Structure prediction request, 217 residues.
Amino acid sequence: MNNTYIFNSLQIDNAEKFQKYYSCMSDYRRSKIDRMKMEKDKLLSLSAGILLDSCLKKLGLRERFMEYALGKNEKPFFTNVRGIYFNISHSGAYAVCSFSENEIGCDIEKIESADIRIAERFFTEGEYSYVLAGENERERSYRFIRLWTLKESCLKYKGTGLGGGLSSFEIGFIGNKPVILNNEEELYLKEYEADGCCVSVACGSNSFSSSLVEVRL
Prediction:
């Protein structure tokens, strides 16, 4: 099963609580947090660790005992356990973590006013037409952000990030369900919405949870 967890970082609302959870993280996660210059970025990085720990506890594991290595384009993976894949994203106050027995990618973006010119530059012609078909600015912005998260989740699945090329593949819709056109990898997509954000997940397995799992302290 491909599960995606979401955490509101505002739950860590004081320094004492931050230190409590920071002290329970792996060396890898604490190092990432320490390298962050902005407090909000430290908070989101810690939130990612809390999400990972919540996922791992269900398997009898803990994040603080995990060993990491970096793959292509610095996508992290575990070296001391096999068959567990994860991907992390954050936007605004939220962090999400997708967890699977298969390679996986996820992205979250806040739904807000978007510069549609970016779609003309980086999306395919069909995707750009989909964005422009929105009835008003709000709908066009939503369509842009929806496509952006779907495409970025695919690139994160591949481990390429944006360097893999947003226009290197095309996303269309059957009904309102997103699909990858000319899908040679048999990659599947799942969408969620949470508090004004689009969340997208890409995985080689089509076994997605029906809803996001909210993690609370």
In short: The radius of gyration is 17 Å.
